[in-house]
Amino acid sequence: MKTQYIKWVYLIILSLVWGSSYILIKWGLVALSPLQLGSLRLLITTIALLLVGYPSLRGLSRYHWKWLAITGYVGTFSPAFLFAFAQQHIDSAIAAILNALTPLLTIIFGLLFFRIDILRKQYFGVGIGLIGSIGLVWGGLHTASNINPIYTLLILAASCCYAMNIHFIKIHLAQVGVMAITLGNFVFMAPAAFVVLIYSDFFSTQTFSHPEIYPAIGYITILALAGSAFAKYLFNNFVKITSAVFASSVTYTLPVVALFWGVNDGESISAFQLLSAAVILFGVYLSHKKKAA
User: Fold this and answer.
1) Which of 62, 161, 200, 224 has CA 20 to 30 A from 209's CA?
2) Residues 60, 236: Cα–Cα separation, whole Å
3) CA-CA distance, 2 to 219, in Å (whole number)?
4) Per residue in 243-265, pLDDT tens?
5) Longest CA pairwise span in the chain (Å)
6) Three-state SS across the chain?
7) Which of 42, 149, 162 is nearest to 86 (CA)?
8) Would you say 67 and 173 are in contact if contact means Cβ atoms under 8 Å apart?
9) In this predicted model, what pLDDT tens digit does every residue of 57-91 receive, in sequence order?
10) Local confidence band at 141 (pLDDT 50, 70, 90 cut-offs)
11) Mean pLDDT confidence for 84-103
């Protein structure tokens, strides 16, 4: 029973943290390019995790190191840049809404590649959540001034990365500690992120002459510490104590938080979108519901 409560606490915290990350990306892009934002976020996160989690990497096998590299690039590196590029052209709330397709993709990939068992109620819950997500997207298309399909595909690609990564962690890293997974991912990504940061001209005079550069770096630092380091650690533990389907359902709840921030920042929201958000929450509840004992 205690674990059941912990799962919901994790879901709420992750929804609040990750739901707020989209607005931080939007504010960071005011003075940073997508390459600068993505690489800076990854490097700050790596440094923070190294300070507290280095001992956790001892004793890992070559097999585990291989999957730490794979899950790092699939579940964190690629989405960090995909979202940064997409949010140059898509509102923060819409980006979060589109990412709510992750649970559906988790089920599809699970059935196609990993032969996971899905309860009928979970199918129903994910279906309802998907309907709510479609409602949010439909409402977003009518309130956003312009949504380029190309950039919605970048969000979809990031959602595919998240969905595959959940299965990879569940299957290949089940015996690895949560901190080791989190830090191991970023250790592999850091060299590539540093190369990208240099290539992006982050250290140039032109970058630091922008009047909003220091606030932007501040937003990305918050994003790295809270949205990447802390939330990634929490999510890796979340994946270990719950099903892949319920773990992925955090992408159904975080758009509610993202919508709040979007409205606060001048983005539009309709009553229809609010209704769709309520439908999403009901779908999450059903996707977690177990068969009676």
Assistant:
1) 224
2) 17
3) 35
4) 777 777 787 778 788 888 888 88
5) 65
6) CHHHHHHHHHHHHHHHHHHHHHHHHHHHCCCCCHHHHHHHHHHHHHHHHHHHHHHHHCCCCHHHHHHHHHHHHHHHHHHHHHHHHHCCCCCHHHHHHHHHHHHHHHHHHHHHHHCCCCCHHHHHHHHHHHHHHHHHHHHHHHHCCCCCHHHHHHHHHHHHHHHHHHHHHHHHCCCCCHHHHHHHHHHHHHHHHHHHHHHCCCCCHHHHCCCCHHHHHHHHHHHHHHHHHHHHHHHHHHHHHCCHHHHHCHHHHHHHHHHHHHHHCCCCCCHHHHHHHHHHHHHHHHHHCCCCC
7) 149
8) yes
9) 888 899 999 999 999 999 999 999 999 899 888 87
10) low
11) 81
Q: How far is CA 92 from CA 197, 266, 270, in A?
A: 23, 11, 15
d(CA 36, CA 90): 18
Q: What is the token pair recorded at 20?
A: 């707020």
- Token pair for 25: 């990306």
Residue 78: name the closest of 15, 32, 34 by CA.
34
Phi and psi dihedrals of 259, rounded to 5?
-65, -40
Look-up of token digits 């607005």: 23
Amino acid at site 59: G
